[in-house]
Amino acid sequence: MSLDEKVRNESILADPERRVARMRQLMERQGYEPTDEELRHLRIIAEANARVLAGASAQPEKPSFFTRLRRRLGLGLLAASLLVPGAARATQLAPLGAAHANGLYGSVWRDRTQLRNPYSTTLTGEICVVPRGESYPDAAACEAYSLAPGTTAVYDDLWGRLFANDGAGTVWVVPDDGQEDPILFSSVFNKNGEAEFGSTSQVLTPDDYAPAGTTLGTILSPEGYRDSPFVATGPDGATIEWTYTNSAGGNKVVVTESYVPNTTFQYTGGVQQLLGFEPEPNASLDARILEGSARVFASSNNNTSNDNAIRKFREYTPTAGAYDITVQINVSDNGQGYSQTTHPSEGIIQKVWQVNDVGVMEGSHTYYCYDLPGGAVNSLDEIAHNYNVRLTPGEQQEFSGDRGGFAPFVNDSDGDGSVCDPDEPDHQYLTRIQLTIAKK
């Protein structure tokens, strides 16, 4: 069961005390101990949510610590968990849809949003803007819309209408319950006197996010441009492994980042902010989604004219190798045995088993807890060590099938040098790994 499913369990939502206790437990698992004041505000929200579930009308108090606490948790736990089943939901969003700011090289960014009602009945709801890096619905500023049949509404400078300060963010459309979706069109442009030039935002629906395990890729711009990556996340947030290579296929750099739910995050400092160095022109940038769901874009801006274009990262499946590889992992969790089967790539097998040619391991190999280390990688402890030290987070996900869930089983919790010790204090340990390699 996912974190989102756990916290939305209605039996817990209906009981404020159980709700607060559950939230506290989930926070502590994230390494955060809430203060008494924060728990008091959580109780206010839990009680209001319980009244909504019981059929009453209640608007929970929005605590002042809300944004700070969500950021400290890092994974947007509160934003994902405080939604009440049955409430109105956003059905469309334009991740790059709102801006009112002065940018680099003299650019002046503004936005324009259009809503159209193609139906024979009036459509009502809200159009909202959420600042980049913040989550919907808690950080949303909204205004109501009412569209007569066949009409179109135009919102110039929507950010400026809803916020007093400069900034940029995502446009969300939230139809009233039972309403059809209006047609949404949103753009951000550089306004230079009477001239306008810019880009149209990709419109997403909840079904458009790419799930965990998806690889998305793009090409960075030629010389004379600047690229700014954007990440639009789904309701569970996202953890993404970024891989950069130059145009010659070299200088590979891997970076892993996590993002809160229901937001658009922009690297305003460009690809350099993400990687920590200035990228070469025409380089490659991949985004592999490890957890949650997301869509990824890059804004490409000409440094002379400030003309802007949006590059959507394209989904693709990395090339498979010459071998069929199967890894079966067996663990013990407080006396209960579990198994997981995965199909990692040849490169991962090379790193874990420290071989240059996977072909030398063709066949089936089984490793148990009592195997002793030798000249080759032939023990569970050696496998676990290389998994922890040599693999990136994305490679760990591919090897284990569940990087987060597998972590306690490759953790030496009693410090005796072994991860397959039945006396581990947490009673979670590896018992067996079988590697099978067959030529295709």
Write up this protein.
The chain has 440 residues and is an alpha+beta fold. Helix content is 22%, strand content 38%. Strands 1, 2, 3, 4, 5, 6, 7 and 8 form an eight-stranded antiparallel sheet that branches. A hairpin with a 2-residue loop joins strand 17 and strand 18 (336-342). Helix 3 (16-29) crosses helix 4.
Task: Walk me through the topology.
Elements: H1 3-7, H2 10-13, H3 16-29, H4 36-53, H5 66-73, H6 77-81, E1 92-102, E2 108-116, E3 123-131, E4 141-147, E5 152-156, H7 158-162, E6 167-175, E7 183-192, E8 195-200, E9 210-211, E10 215-219, E11 225-245, E12 253-259, E13 264-266, H8 271-275, E14 284-302, E15 308-312, E16 314-316, E17 323-333, E18 336-342, H9 346-353, E19 363-368, H10 380-390, H11 393-400, H12 403-406, E20 428-439
Antiparallel strand pairs: 1-2, 1-6, 2-5, 2-7, 3-4, 3-6, 7-8, 9-14, 10-14, 10-16, 11-12, 11-13, 11-14, 14-15, 17-18, 17-20, 19-20
Largest sheet: 8 strands, antiparallel
Strand content: 35-45%
For the record, the count of structural domains works out to: 4
**What is the approximate shape?**
globular
Would you count the extended β strands for me? 20
User: Averaged pLDDT, please?
Assistant: 78
SS-based structural class? Answer: alpha+beta
Number of helices: 12
Radius of gyration: 25 Å
Percent of residues in helices comes to 10-25%
